[in-house]
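> example.struct
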C-alpha cells in the first residue's frame, strides 16, 4: 500500500463527517433534554460539586428507535447508517465493505486544553465523550454483526462476542451514575488522550475481535463455550460488584457490604468486600471481561487479544497512578489500607 493510498484512507468522506456531526448533535441535545437522574459528582478542590445527568441509556434507546424508524432497520441500511462515526467506517459499495477512517478534526481537537472538568453548554465533556465512545463501540459492533448476517457467515463465536459486548455496554449505561466516581471523571484532565481514547480508540480497537471474526472461521467445543461464559460471568460479578460497592460506600459509608457492616479505615476508605481482597479488584473483573470478549475467537491468533493485552497494560499503569494519587491524598490512612490489603489487582500474584 503506497503512502498516497494510505493518506486517502485517512480522509473522511463528507457523508461520514455529516453523520458524525449529526451523532454528536443528537447526543448533545438528548443529553440536555431527556430526563435522567441528576447525580452529584466528587467534591472539587474549591468545595463545589458538579452534577451529571445520567440519561445515557434513554439517549441510546431513543437513538436506536430513531435509526429504526428512519432507516427501517434493514440489514444494509443498518450497516450504512451506523457508518457512524466519521471516525470510523466509510461505507463503500452500498455498504458492503467497511474501512477504518480517522478524521483529522478529531485528532486536532487537542485545543480542549488540559482542564479537569470542561463544560460546553452545560454538558460535561468528559462524560459526553465516554458516552459517545461506548455508543460508537456498540454501533460498530452492530454493523459488523449486520455484515456477517448479510454475508451468511454468522457464527457461534460472533454471537458470543456480540452478546458479551452488548451486555457490557448496556450495563455501562444502566449504571452510568457509577461513572461519576471513577478516575476519568474525578482525576483525569480532558486532553488529547481522553478525547482520542474515547472517540477513536474505544470504538475501533475494542471491536477488533468482531472484524477478525468476519474473515475467520472458528470452531468452539462445548467446554470452550462454557469456560467462555463463566469467564464473562465471573468477570461481570467482580467488575460490577466492586464498582457498586465503592459507589454505595461513597454515598453512605455505613451501608452493609456483603450483609455485614463495612470495614472502614479512617472513615474514608472501604476495606471490606471486593475492596478487602485487592485494592483494585474492579480492574481484575474488567480484565476477565476483556478476556471473555476475545475467547470466542479461539487461540489461533494473537490479533483478537489486542484488547485484553492493551487493557492489562493500561490498568497496571492506571493502578500505579491511582496508588500515587491516593497515597498523597489519604497519607497514613492509605498506608494502613495497604497494610491491610497488600494486593493491588490479583491476590497472591500482583
Ligand atoms: P476506580 O473506580 O477504582 O477509582 C479510583 C478511585 O477510587 C481512587 O482515586 C479513590 O478516589 C477511590 N478509592 C480507591 N480505593 C478506595 C477504597 N478502598 N475505598 C474508597 N474509595 C477508594 O478506578 P477507575 O476510575 O480507573 O476505574 C473504574 C472502572 O472503569 C474500573 O472497573 C475499570 O476497570 C474501568 N475502566 C475501564 C477501562 C477500559 O478501557 N475498559 C479504562 C479505565 C477504567 P477518591 O479520591 O474519590 O477516594
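> example.seq
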Amino acid at each position: 500500500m503506497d503512502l498516497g493510498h494510505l493518506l486517502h484512507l485517512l480522509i473522511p468522506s463528507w457523508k461520514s463527517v455529516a453523520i458524525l456531526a449529526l451523532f454528536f448533535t443528537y447526543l448533545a441535545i438528548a443529553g440536555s433534554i431527556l430526563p435522567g437522574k441528576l447525580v452529584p459528582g466528587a467534591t472539587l478542590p474549591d468545595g463545589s460539586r458538579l452534577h451529571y445527568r445520567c440519561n445515557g441509556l434513554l439517549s441510546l434507546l431513543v437513538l436506536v428507535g430513531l435509526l429504526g424508524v428512519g432507516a427501517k432497520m434493514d440489514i444494509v441500511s443498518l450497516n450504512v447508517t451506523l457508518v457512524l462515526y466519521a471516525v470510523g467506517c466509510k461505507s463503500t459499495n452500498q455498504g458492503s465493505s467497511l474501512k477504518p477512517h480517522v478524521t483529522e478534526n478529531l485528532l486536532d481537537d487537542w485545543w480542549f486544553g488540559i482542564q479537569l472538568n470542561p463544560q460546553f453548554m452545560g454538558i460535561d465533556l468528559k462524560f459526553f465523550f465516554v458516552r459517545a465512545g461506548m455508543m460508537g463501540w456498540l454501533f460498530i459492533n452492530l454493523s459488523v454483526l449486520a455484515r456477517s448476517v448479510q454475508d451468511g457467515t454468522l457464527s457461534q463465536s460472533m454471537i458470543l462476542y456480540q452478546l458479551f459486548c452488548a451486555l457490557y455496554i448496556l450495563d455501562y449505561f444502566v449504571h452510568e451514575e457509577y461513572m461519576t466516581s471513577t478516575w476519568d471523571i474525578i482525576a483525569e484532565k480532558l486532553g488529547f488522550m481522553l478525547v482520542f481514547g474515547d472517540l477513536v480508540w474505544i470504538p475501533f480497537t475494542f471491536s477488533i475481535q468482531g472484524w477478525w471474526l468476519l474473515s475467520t472461521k472458528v470452531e468452539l467445543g462445548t467446554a470452550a463455550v462454557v469456560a467462555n461464559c463463566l469467564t464473562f460471568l465471573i468477570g461481570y460479578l467482580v467488575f460490577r460488584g466492586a464498582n457498586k460497592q465503592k459507589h454505595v460506600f461513597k454515598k453512605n459509608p455505613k451501608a452493609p457490604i456483603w450483609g455485614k457492616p463495612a470495614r472502614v479505615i479512617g472513615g474514608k476508605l472501604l476495606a471490606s468486600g471486593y475492596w478487602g481482597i485487592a485494592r483494585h479488584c474492579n480492574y481484575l473483573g474488567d480484565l476477565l471481561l476483556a478476556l471473555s470478549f476475545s475467547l470466542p475467537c479461539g487461540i489461533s491468533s494473537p490479533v483478537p487479544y489486542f484488547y485484553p493485552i492493551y487493557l492489562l497494560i493500561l490498568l497496571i499503569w492506571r493502578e500505579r497512578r491511582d496508588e500515587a494519587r491516593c497515597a498523597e491524598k489519604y497519607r497514613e490512612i492509605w498506608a494502613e489500607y495497604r497494610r491491610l490489603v497488600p494486593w493491588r489487582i490479583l491476590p497472591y500474584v500482583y
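> remarks
Confidence is low (pLDDT under 50) at residues 73-112.
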